[in-house]
Write a structure and sequence with these properties.
Layout (H helix, E strand, L loop, with lengths): L10 E5 L4 H11 L3 E6 L14 E2 L2 E2 H5 L4 E5 L5 H12 L3 E4 L4 H6 L4 H7 L4 E6 L14 H8 L1 H4 L14 H24 L3 E6 H7 L2 H10 L16 E5 L5 E5 L3 H10 L15 H6 L1 H12 L4 H10 L4 E3 L3 H6 L1 H5 L3 E6 L3 E6 L23 H8 L3 H9 L4
Parallel strand pairs: 1-2, 1-6, 2-5, 6-7, 7-8
Antiparallel strand pairs: 3-4, 9-10, 10-11, 12-13
Helix pairs in contact: 1-8, 6-9, 8-9
Length: 400
């Protein structure tokens, strides 16, 4: 028996490509929305060409963020295609776009003002590099630019090293998640007001939120945050340690109670635990140059397999530092069913990461694999009322 979904009956028109927008629309699809992905005939979403790796010609990148969507290939730069596209938007609940320039939206009647005038209940979301306002509104922006301009690249790594890009496109993913949150909030507001609204978010906006307490520290002191590698600016010990078997584990003793428990585990009750230099977290932070070498030496005396059960038994947050393959094989990850498998007509069994929320009554659902380019064009146009002859005429004209 199929369970109801949170967004059952919500229709989303998705004019996005690459990662930020598709992340947002995929999760809307996981929550039950009918997501119609608009793509250019012949080429489609640019990420269809991202690779290697490819699985029987299908980009693994594209497959990772495009499940639970129907693909409609339509050239909206042609009048006939634009008419079809606008009809789709006029009958939708949500329209998502990542066109970088407002002028492009205005040119095709896709601006928030134009769309809301035709469909006052529409939620109109723009996800761009810098947002629709401000001096950089018309600039193109990729994830790496947002990482650079947010300050997060400057913080990453050790002092004296060049800036480091985080190896995952966190600015794209964060923008997609804030887009998701914003759409859900706007849909809730619409239940009360009956009105849709425009939402404008950006990669730079979202990436700035990653600064969180680092921003708070800067606002409080006015001092440029230092590069700390894997250390925490405000908590000690809260870092990786190498063990006797040359493996790395992480230890987070984030309170005085946990510090005392950690001292007992490592056999330092009579030394470190009673040393006034390390009596409080602030003192441990101030005396890192003397404390951390001691801890490094102690942690090298046992293997990871010896340390981790002792730390866990004492209630100290800790764990192995995994490679990606190890993470996916961890029994906790498998128990949480964080890997989704869907059968794709070309690529076979495709795996992707699940929606990370477990609902008791309205669970996320994984109904269809990432679509082939234009796979659902005829189906969706039929739902709009086009007959076979009309669809054939659009195809003959190069519109679909």
């Amino acid at each position: 028996m199929n369970q109801p979904t949170i967004l059952q009956g919500i229709k989303v028109i998705d004019l996005t490509q690459a990662l930020a927008g598709p992340t947002c629309s995929m999760y809307l699809g996981d929550l039950g929305a009918d997501v119609i992905k608009i793509e250019r005939p012949g080429s489609g979403d640019m990420s269809r060409g991202y690779g290697p790796p490819f699985i029987d010609g299908e980009s693994a990148y594209f497959l990772s963020v495009n499940r639970n969507k129907r693909s409609v290939a339509i050239d909206y730069t042609k009048a006939e295609g634009l008419a079809v596209f606008q009809r789709l938007i006029d009958g939708a609940d949500v329209f998502i776009n990542n066109l970088p320039r407002q002028a492009s939206l205005d040119k095709y009647g896709l601006s928030a003002e134009a769309c809301l005038a035709r469909n006052p209940r529409l939620i109109h979301l723009s996800i761009t590099g810098f947002g629709r306002t401000g001096p950089y509104a018309d600039r193109s922006g990729y994830d790496v630019v947002a990482q650079a301009m947010s300050g997060t690249m400057d913080l990453t790594g050790e002092e004296g090293q060049p800036p480091l890009r985080y190896p995952v496109a966190i600015a794209d993913i964060t923008a997609g998640l804030f887009g998701l949150i914003s759409v859900l909030g706007a849909l809730f507001a619409r239940e009360r007001t009956g009105r849709g609204q425009a939402i404008d978010t950006s990669l730079l906006d979202g990436q700035l939120t990653w600064l969180s307490y680092i921003a708070g520290n800067f606002f409080a002191t006015g001092e440029k945050p230092p590069k700390l590698g894997s250390l925490h600016p405000s908590i000690t010990p809260y870092q990786p340690f190498k063990t006797a078997d040359d493996k790395w584990i992480i230890v987070g003793a984030g309170s005085e109670k946990l510090w005392r428990a950690y001292c007992r585990v490592i056999g330092a009750e009579e030394t470190l635990m009673n040393d006034p230099r390390y009596a409080t977290n602030s003192q441990r932070n101030a005396n890192r140059p003397t404390l951390l070498p001691i801890l490094d030496d102690i942690m090298r005396q046992r293997t990871a397999a010896e340390w981790l059960p002792l730390l866990d038994e004492a209630g100290i947050p800790s764990g192995p530092i995994y490679a990606v393959d190890e993470a996916f094989n961890d029994p906790q990850v498998q128990a949480r069913r964080m890997i989704v498998e869907l059968e794709h007509p070309a690529a076979g069994l495709v795996k992707s990461l699940a929606f990370p929320g477990v609902f008791s009554d309205t669970p996320a659902s994984y109904r269809q694999p990432p679509p082939r380019l234009g796979e659902h064009t005829g189906q969706v146009l039929g739902e709009l009322g086009y007959d076979a002859a009309g669809i054939d005429a659009l195809r003959a004209a190069g519109v679909i």
